[in-house]
From TrEMBL:
InterPro entries per the UniProt record, alphabetical: Aldolase_TIM, Alpha-hydoxy_acid_DH_FMN, FMN-dep_DH, FMN_HAD, FMN_hydac_DH_AS
Superkingdom of origin: Bacteria
Span of domain FMN hydroxy acid dehydrogenase: 10-370
Keywords assigned by UniProt, alphabetized: Flavoprotein, FMN, Oxidoreductase
Keyword field contains Flavoprotein: yes
Annotated coiled-coil segments of the chain: none
GO molecular function: FMN binding; oxidoreductase activity, acting on CH-OH group of donors
Protein name: Alpha-hydroxy-acid oxidizing protein
Amino acids binding FMN: P89, I90, A91, S118, Q138, K241, D296, S297, G298, I299, R300, G319, R320
Cofactors required: FMN
Entries under Pfam families matching the protein: FMN_dh
Keyword flag Nucleotide-binding: no
Length: 376
């Protein structure tokens, strides 16, 4: 059963913050699907650390700046965006609403933010391109290199503006909530970019069909040499997602990528990895302006976006909150969440004395011990 199929429509006007959308969506989503969405790996230490780090960070506002107007517009990778936000690659979005990725792509297009099409999308990229927004396409490294090339050519033909290469999944993290439930995709939800290549839905007790699928298709031997091969086989700018180590960030920059995403996969890979926010300042310091730095994992509000940019990021990728909106009302629900995020960021910028995203990067930040945060 899809969320919303047996419950009355939600009054979106009653939801006044992105954070509130989580609680509303939980009651409209099957328990196994909800666990799949909100859970992390292992004991979920890193999942919790993402929020702890963001909550602990303070931003020092500026006053008497003389600003009466603000603009949230910015450039992300090689394109324009109406705010420093892109929709993160999220697998199997039809789990949350029958319209799935189409609803999200349409809402992102209206909001003027890039939409990253997941390799594990349950809707073909060509249908999403017809929505008219800015599309990026996500790749994991596949054992079948000919299929990789086919997907790259399809992304180029569909008008995708960047390739986002997720590099943090040599194996899927042990997501215990899914394992306990033996989480299996419903019959009408599949990774359409794999054609008929699907993992069996008949899994042993304690297994996960998604873990089985990724183990079958993904190549754990992915290396820097493979990234160089990919760069030589596409005209699209590359975004490397899943960087936490400063040396890896430098090596990605040396490989000529357009951007990196500082990410611990939303706490779903190595449990015990640092929060994205904690490593962001060092990564920003290690790179010059030729490489944009984006961040995901734990972003839940406009204030969180402000904090990420104050630490030096150029933008954020928004993941789970998009699915909250999708579960609440399809395209309208996603549009509402993105509108709330825009309004929250605009208000935070006003209160911090910032007129545009670049000025946010000049703010000072403080840790709980009142030590200068980030690069300040």
């Amino acid at each position: 059963m899809h969320p919303g199929s047996a419950v009355p429509p939600v009054d979106l006007s009653s939801i006044v913050s992105v954070a509130q959308a989580e609680g509303e969506a939980a009651g409209r989503t099957p328990a196994d699907v909800w666990d799949y969405l909100v859970g992390g790996s292992g004991q979920e230490v890193t999942l919790g650390a993402n929020r702890t780090a963001l909550d602990a960070l303070a931003v020092v506002p500026r006053v008497l700046t003389g600003l009466s107007e603000r603009s949230l517009h910015c450039r992300l990778v090689d394109g324009e965006a109406r705010m420093p936000v892109a929709v993160a690659p999220i697998a199997y979005q039809k789990l949350f609403h029958p319209h799935g990725e189409l609803a999200v792509a349409r809402a992102a297009a209206v909001a003027g933010v890039p939409y990253v099409v997941s390799l594990l999308s349950s809707t073909p990229m060509e249908e999403l391109a017809a929505c008219g927004g800015s599309l990026w396409f996500q790749l994991y490294w596949l054992k079948d290199r000919s299929r990789m090339l086919d997907l790259i050519r399809r992304a180029e033909a569909a008008g995708c503006e960047a390739l986002v290469v997720s590099v943090d999944m040599p194996a899927m993290g042990r997501r215990l909530r899914d394992l306990r439930r033996g989480f299996t995709l419903p019959a009408d939800v599949r990774a359409v970019h794999f054609g008929e290549q699907q993992a069996s839905r008949d899994i042993a007790a304690g297994g996960s069909s998604i873990a089985s699928h990724t183990a079958m298709a993904f190549d754990p031997s992915f290396s820097w040499a493979d990234l160089a091969w990919l760069a030589a086989h596409t005209r699209l700018p590359l975004v490397v997602k899943g960087i936490l180590d400063v040396d890896d960030a430098r090596q990605a920059a040396h490989a000529g990528v357009a951007a990196i995403v500082v990410s611990n996969h939303g706490g779903r890979q190595l449990d015990g990895a640092p929060s994205s926010v904690d490593v962001l300042p060092a990564v920003v310091d290690a790179l010059d302006d030729s490489v944009q730095v984006l961040i995901d994992s734990g972003i839940r509000s406009g204030s969180d976006v402000l904090k990420a940019l104050a630490l030096g990021a150029h933008g954020v990728l928004l993941g789970r909150p998009v699915c909250w909106g999708l579960a609440l009302g399809g395209e309208s629900g996603v549009a509402h969440v993105l509108s709330l995020l825009h309004d929250e960021l605009d208000n935070a910028m006003a209160l911090a004395g910032c007129g545009d995203p670049s000025s946010i990067r000049q703010l000072r930040t403080l840790t709980p011990a009142a030590r200068p945060g980030g690069r300040r």
